[in-house]
Amino acid sequence: MNHSSELPTLSMVVPLLNEEEVIETTYATLKKYLDHLGETYELIFVDDGSTDRSRAILAALATIDRSVRVVVLSRNFGHEMATTAGLRHARGRAAIVMDADLQDPPEMIARFVAKWREGYEVVYGVRKERKGESFLKKATSYVFYRLVARIADVPIPADTGDFRLLDRRVLDVYRRFQEEPRFFRGLIGWIGFRQVGIPFVRHCRAGGRTKYRYSRLLRLAFDTITAFSTLPALIVTLTAGSFALASFAGCAVAVLLWMFGAMVMEGWMWASLGFLLLWNVQFLSLAVLGEYIVRTHRHAQRRPLYIVDSILEYEREELEAGTRHDAEMTATLVCHPSELCEIRR
Ligand code: UDP
Ligand code: MG
After folding, report:
1. Ligand 1, atom 24: nearest CA belongs to which residue?
2. CA of 164 to the centre of ligand 2 (A)
């Protein structure tokens, strides 16, 4: 941002952890692209509990450049929370989230902004190629994204990262989310509005090493599936249901055969039938409990019930205060017969 009193058009949000090798290069590169863009901007770096010189470097940048703001977290809260913190501090009319290692090409910023100007509220990068990443990482993420795309309750486009632009309307909704753990890309997919992807090639890191170990990726994958899909619980319920049906039918047939003298039932057979029935009742009870837990879990996420994009009607008065519901986020599009549409928030 050029003048601290004015709100910037664009907020760049860069979460980072121990990135002393790259911060200065990233800063200089971003400045170059942003100055060229001709929009007012602010650079928000979120220090996610770095233990190297990152904080000192950021502090130095903030003292020489008024467009730099540094949000220092009290410890390492993880990439998703660092991103959330940065977005909450963003004051721009749109924000772009970007990694600190220049794997996300800054030349995409101008293209994101152009799409935003066309009216898209979310513009995300789609990785067509990933340089400098191991075969195992590429293969696991390939499978993960396709699995998530299939089972998630909301559209989560494949091969997208956090590198994306969010309009102020999306930012305002996102800041209301309370859920933890959270999967940023999933929640943005949940929010909806007009979204568009632009393909790009992901570069190698400009320096330093990845902060994501496989254990952390596994955790993220598990959190994502449980936050955005109820399919695992449904699989348990269906399995328990089919087992129960088959075993109840089997028991009934055995008893009938025994009653009509077609089968001799020995003591151990009765005992086995008893255990089978008991085991199935237990499995079924677990599945039922699981279904209730899913509901509790959904409630605990406390997402808004729905988000209104726009209300199209002629009478402006009818839309005045009082018609808004608590659990409803509104960004209203009021259409007058003789005027162009205007966005009201
Ligand atoms: N990061 C963070 N907190 C963490 C881990 C990572 O803020 O706990 C930052 C990291 O500094 C980088 C971005 O998140 O700016 C992406 O991390 P990284 O490059 O290590 O992930 P990769 O690109 O290898 O998936
Ligand atoms: Mg990276």
Report:
1. 210
2. 14
Which range is most confident: 114-118, 172-176, 215-219, 302-306?
114-118
Residue 145 CB-half CA count within 13 A = 14
Q: Residue with the nearest Cα to atom 23 of ligand 1?
A: 210
pLDDT for the residue numbered 333: 47
- Measuring from atom 3 of ligand 1, which residue has the nearest CA? 79
Q: Which of 52, 212, 214, 217 maximizes ligand 1 atoms within 8 Å of its Cβ, making it the mutation to test the pocket?
A: 212
Phi, psi at 197, each rounded to 5°: -110, 145
Please state, in angstroms and rounded to a whole number, the distance separating the CA atoms of residues 91 and 11.
7
User: Which residues make beta-bridge pairs with 126?
Assistant: 160, 199
Whole-prediction pTM? 0.80
Least distant ligand from the CA of 209: 1
Written as six digits, the tokens of 91 are 């004051």
Length of the chain: 345
Distance in Å, CA 17 to ligand 1 centroid: 6
Q: What is the DSSP letter of 133?
A: -
> Which residues, in sequence order, are CB contacts of 1 under 8 Å at separation 6+?
7, 8, 40, 41, 42, 66, 67
Nearest ligand 1 atom, CA 15: 7
**Residue-wise pLDDT tens digits, 253-264:** 999 999 998 888
H helices of 74-128, where? Answer: 79-89, 108-118
The predicted-structure confidence for 239-280, as pLDDT tens digits, reads as follows 999 999 998 898 899 999 999 988 888 889 889 889 899 999
**Token output for 33:** 């692209």
Least confident among 33-47, 58-72, 246-260:
246-260
How many angstroms does the Cα of residue 176 sit away from the middle of ligand 2?
27
Q: What are phi and psi of 274, to 5 degrees?
A: -60, -50
